[in-house]
Amino acid sequence: MEVIPAIDLLNGKCVRLYQGDYDRAEVFNEDPVAMAQQWASEGATRLHLVDLDGAKAGHPVNLEAIAAIVRALKIPVQVGGGLRDRQSVADLLSTGVDRAILGTVAVKNPELVAQLCSEFPQQIIVGIDARNGRVATQGWLETSEVLATELAERMAQLGAAAIIYTDIHRDGTLQGPNLEALRELASVVSIPIIASGGVSSVTDLLSLLSLESQGVTGAIVGRALYTGDVSLKEAIRAVGQGRWQDVPPDLGSSAFA
């Protein structure tokens, strides 16, 4: 299972939110590039960036910081936050970002998702952020009536390379991942699922590893890395790293290389 460190960008700084609350942002590093380099030096094979300003504004805001991180690293970077039109996605990918993560637009404009999946094959991931099983949008500021499982099925049909699933009630809380929700999501799609939110220990990662055979092939870790509850090096040793090539055959065309 791939362990993916997260960097959330707010006002050009590396922060973590508590349950998506912008008023409860904690700054962990003033220099996101240095933070990204640290995770790469500790063995990360992929980095997860979220443009929190962009998610709130509805368009990318931290492109310069993102581009600087991409230039400084040799590992692939995936980015989400405020990607709600074709040009924003194209501009982001032009910086060298490996994959763009779509969120709100998946609910509000699925036709655009289909277009982007066709234009940028294997470079579009759909982030599904849920409260009580229902999809949240607009940087988690709104909760829709759309079920996470229904959205995942539709996005897989449209050609998304993978699904990132975040349980908002677990995000930033160190309470452990929502295994039941992940298992349910994995049962309805045949593309890779990346778990996000709540990882507090290597034990949590090992519990996620039990779902790898069902298609949960990666885990994004945020706050626990910054607080020291999880050592990236120890996590990698515990659950393996970057095994996208080992995803079952029916997932092969979408598996991360």
Overall description:
An eight-stranded parallel β-barrel has the order 1-4-5-6-7-10-11-12, surrounded by eight helices. It has a single domain (2-254), classed as TIM Barrel (Alpha-Beta Barrel), CATH 3.20.20. The longest helix has 11 residues, at 148-158. The chain is α/β, with parallel strands linked by helices and 257 residues long. It is 35% helix and 28% strand. The protein has helices spanning 32-41, 52-57, 63-72, 86-94, 104-108, 110-119, 148-158, 179-186, 202-209, 223-227, 232-239, and strands at 2-10, 13-18, 21-29, 47-51, 77-80, 99-102, 124-131, 134-137, 142-147, 162-167, 193-196, 216-221. It is globular, with a radius of gyration of 16 Å.
Structural classification: alpha/beta
Q: In angstroms, what separates the terminal alpha carbons?
A: 13 Å
Q: Which stretches are low in confidence, meaning pLDDT under 50 for 5 or more residues running?
A: 242-257
| Number of domain units | 1
For the record, what is the CATH homologous superfamily label? Aldolase class I
Mean of pLDDT: 87
Strands, helices and their partners?
Elements: E1 2-10, E2 13-18, E3 21-29, H1 32-41, E4 47-51, H2 52-57, H3 63-72, E5 77-80, H4 86-94, E6 99-102, H5 104-108, H6 110-119, E7 124-131, E8 134-137, E9 142-147, H7 148-158, E10 162-167, H8 179-186, E11 193-196, H9 202-209, E12 216-221, H10 223-227, H11 232-239
Parallel strand pairs: 1-4, 1-12, 4-5, 5-6, 6-7, 7-10, 10-11, 11-12
Antiparallel strand pairs: 1-2, 2-3, 7-8, 8-9
Helix pairs in contact: 1-3, 9-11
